[in-house]
Design a protein that fits this description.
6 helices
């Protein structure tokens, strides 16, 4: 059983993702729900998504541009009404450096979110290095953003969010009830058309069978997460609210 369910609707939210589409996969329905209730939602996407294809002949510069357009379209589908920021780090080569920590911390200070969402860096056996490093950057930047003696030369006031929600959580203890928002999440994911084959396993010549299987997988995950809190559909996180 989840220990908590449903934060009060936050005024402002920052979702931090390693790649274009990570945010939709992990918390898209939660963001759609909050936006429908008046939240301002911002995105911070850390890498350029340039390795997100199985085609060895693909032009990666073209892919970078395509994935930014797809990310903006997906955010629009969810109703995102704040900033969409791309840090442009090379896909697959993200590092949790002090320089990048400062960049993430300064965006937290600029955007002043009451809730920050990001990858759980403590999850075991995570294969993709970008997800690990994105998690550390998010957690470490929350600490740096809240304390006034980090980066005083930037002259941006320090900011302490009220809560940090970690998705892909090793130990989920919080569920957002997203019943009624599943279709918006799935529609936003399908806006990432360059990822249909490599991430969603939907071939260009699909007769609808693979698309149906993808929808079943997504709905099944929402149902599984919802079961933790005895709601129909949910997205699960680890909540840290003593920041």
């Amino acid at each position: 059983m989840s220990q908590s369910t449903n934060l009060d609707t936050p005024a402002s939210v920052l979702a931090v993702g390693a790649h274009p589409d990570d945010i939709e996969f992990q918390c898209g329905a939660t963001l759609a729900k909050w936006i429908s209730r008046g939240s301002t939602v911002h995105y911070l996407v850390l890498t350029d998504g340039s390795k997100g294809t199985w085609d060895p002949q693909a032009d990666t510069n073209d892919l970078i541009a395509i994935r930014q357009v797809e990310q903006r379209n997906a955010a629009l589908t969810l109703g995102v009404n704040g900033e969409i920021v791309f840090l442009g780090q090379t896909d697959g080569e993200l590092q949790s450096t002090l320089e990048l920590r400062q960049q993430v911390a300064l965006w937290i200070r600029r955007l002043t979110p009451s809730v920050v969402l990001g990858h759980d860096p403590w999850r075991r056996y995570r294969l993709h290095p970008d997800h690990r490093h994105a998690g550390w950057l998010t957690v470490d930047a929350v600490v740096a953003a809240r304390d006034p003696h980090f980066y005083p030369d930037d002259e941006i006031p320090h900011h302490r969010p009220d809560a940090l929600l970690l998705f892909e959580a090793e130990e989920p203890d919080h569920v957002e009830d997203v019943t009624g928002f599943a279709e918006m999440k799935i529609a936003a994911l399908l806006d990432h058309r360059s990822q249909l084959r490599s991430t969603m396993f939907i071939d260009p010549n699909d007769d609808g069978t693979q698309l149906a299987a993808f929808r079943t997988r997504m709905l099944g995950k929402l149902t599984s997460h919802g079961r933790l809190a005895r709601v129909a559909e949910g997205e699960a996180f680890h909540l840290i609210d003593r920041l």
